[in-house]
Design goal:
Blueprint: H1 2-19, E1 23-30, E2 33-40, H2 42-46, H3 51-54, H4 65-79, E3 85-91, E4 94-105, E5 108-118, H5 120-142, E6 146-151, E7 156-159, H6 161-167, H7 171-174, H8 187-198, E8 203-211, E9 217-228, E10 234-243, H9 245-289, H10 295-320, E11 328-331, H11 332-349, E12 352-358, E13 366-369, H12 371-387, E14 393-401, E15 408-414, H13 443-453, E16 457-463, E17 467-475
Parallel strand pairs: 12-14
Antiparallel strand pairs: 1-2, 1-5, 3-4, 4-5, 6-7, 6-10, 8-9, 9-10, 11-13, 14-15, 15-17, 16-17
The protein binds adenosine-5'-diphosphate (ADP) and magnesium ion.
């Protein structure tokens, strides 16, 4: 009875060791060899052994000589009394971690107990993680864009070499400090950005200005996104800044030269166009001074010539005037309604009705635009349509959306005018091409320029005697 009670816990212990996922073994040194005295656990079988095969054997009877020798070194250290000897072994495609503990009696090591766990999966994950980390590291370091990583208190944790190169601060100078490149006059804007990021928003390709160590200001395109830990919590932010100073300078230069060229070209044309009515008026003034008859007719002609000059100058100013590049998200339907109301009285006088139709079941037509410019385009196209319909009629204006993200907005103006001969269509948009007595031939040119600047297209489709359709396609803004 007494014996049974003592035996029970011991049996339980052996059972537990046997059923464990890992492996426990013991060894002793006898006659200079390390002989295993116990070996239990599921891992034993996975390694391809059975306890009987191991117990009573030394390392050289179980493993190839080379790996036995490596293990024997660890066995020896544990036998010499060293605590916490560990090693990694691999057998039968299984990697395991063994920890050895000497058991001492009266200060002498009498046996060593080893416990082993299977680390095959962990090792694989570690290797994968390692190569992912290496890959990320090489992206980070070889990026031509400056990258900074900050913690939640906006202190810099890391920067890459492009950061050092672009901004001029070395990593040591900035680590642990706040971002040094925000120009003082932009502190407020940077704060606003910070709030956005803290609210969980991402910032993509935001164009702004940053200051280098030597005080130089550079144009950058910023992308900022949160960095999360394994649990998904935001631990900081990474900012990527691309130096776009050179690109900006080129763009500005092209824009200016393009505009100067155009204005120079136009100014020559304007001078030429104005000379004709001026010559005519000079003639009439001379006639009037000579005391000629039918004066009222002269006055009418002179007034009409002055109107023409006025038209040319107005259109010219519209093109030459510095244009606002203040783009904002606008509803095309709303702009069209405003323009149609504006032209309502004139249409009425000409016996013309303007009908606005939005295709059903399409998304709201939003575009990114300089509203004033787009209005000018609509006004010009509607005026042309009205001028093409001396007998009155109906102009249909149609709006259609082909989708939101990367979709397009199409606006069509159908008139019932005389149409445009096919061979003349390529001439539309050339400065001073006009078939009208008081025309300037500048309206369509301006329309083409504006639509192009908005990333859109302008197309003409016309049938003589039937009418003309002008179609504008513009990129849709996201809802
Ligand atoms: P303008 O209206 O001052 O003549 P535009 O550049 O606006 O200058 O138009 C150039 C020419 O294109 C017009 O003179 C006309 O011949 C032709 N045109 C433009 N729109 C239409 C239209 N809807 N129907 C017929 N002809 C048109
Ligand atoms: Mg016109």
């Amino acid at each position: 009875m007494e014996k049974h009670e003592q035996l029970q816990p011991e049996l339980n212990l052996v059972e537990t060791i046997r059923l464990q996922q890992g492996m426990t073994f013991k060894f002793k040194q006898t006659e200079g060899r390390f002989i295993h005295t116990l070996c239990e656990g599921e891992l034993v079988y996975q390694l391809g052994f059975t306890p009987c095969q191991v117990v009573g054997k030394d390392l050289y009877q179980l493993f190839p000589d080379k790996s036995a020798a490596v293990k024997e070194d660890f066995y020896r250290r544990a036998w010499a009394g060293e605590e916490k000897v560990t090693y990694e072994g691999e057998y039968n495609n299984i990697r395991y971690l063994a920890s050895l503990r000497p058991v001492k009696r009266n200060g002498t090591v009498v046996e060593v107990i080893a416990s082993c766990v299977d680390i095959t999966e962990r090792k694989k994950a570690e290797i994968e993680l390692g190569s992912t980390r290496e890959l990320l590291e090489s992206f980070f370091e070889s990026s031509l864009d400056a990258i900074d990583v900050v913690d939640l208190s906006s202190k810099i944790i890391r920067v890459n070499s492009a950061f050092e190169h672009i901004y001029g601060w070395s990593a040591e100078e900035v680590l642990g400090r706040g971002l040094p490149f925000i120009p003082s006059h932009m502190a407020e804007q940077a704060e606003a950005l910070n709030r956005k990021i803290l609210a969980g928003e991402q910032i993509k390709n935001y164009e702004t200005v940053r200051q280098c160590k030597d005080g130089r200001l550079i144009d950058v395109s910023l992308t900022v996104f949160p960095v999360r830990n394994a649990a998904g919590n935001i631990t900081g932010y990474a900012g990527i800044s691309r130096d776009i100073t050179e690109k900006k300078r080129t763009e500005e230069f092209l824009r200016k030269t393009d505009k100067l060229n155009m204005i120079g070209h136009l100014a020559a044309g304007v001078a030429h166009e104005i000379r004709n009515p001026l010559t005519a008026m000079r003639g009439f003034v001379q006639l009037l001074r000579a005391g000629h008859e039918s004066k009222s007719e002269f006055y009418d002609i002179m007034l009409s010539e002055i109107d023409l000059i006025n038209n040319i100058v107005t259109d010219f100013l519209m093109i030459a005037k510095p244009q606002t590049t203040d783009f904002k998200r606008s509803h095309v339907g709303r702009i069209l309604k405003q323009v149609i109301t504006l032209l309502g009285a004139e249409a009425n006088l000409r016996g013309i009705v303007i009908c606005l139709e939005t295709k059903p079941n399409t998304a709201e037509p939003f575009i990114h635009c300089a509203e004033f410019q787009i209005k000018q385009v609509f006004i010009n196209l509607l005026k042309n349509a009205m001028e093409a319909m001396p007998g009155g009629g109906t102009i249909f204006v149609e709006v259609e959306t082909t989708g939101t993200a990367h979709g397009e907005i199409r606006i069509r103006f159908h008139d019932q005018g005389g149409g445009i001969p096919e061979e003349r269509i390529p001439k539309l948009g050339e400065p001073f091409y006009t078939t009208k007595e008081k025309g300037t031939g500048l309206g369509l040119m301006m329309c083409f320029k504006i639509v192009e600047a908005h990333g859109g297209r302008l197309l003409f489709d016309s049938q003589l005697g039937r009418g003309t359709t002008v179609e504008i396609t513009l990129p849709a803004a996201e809802i």
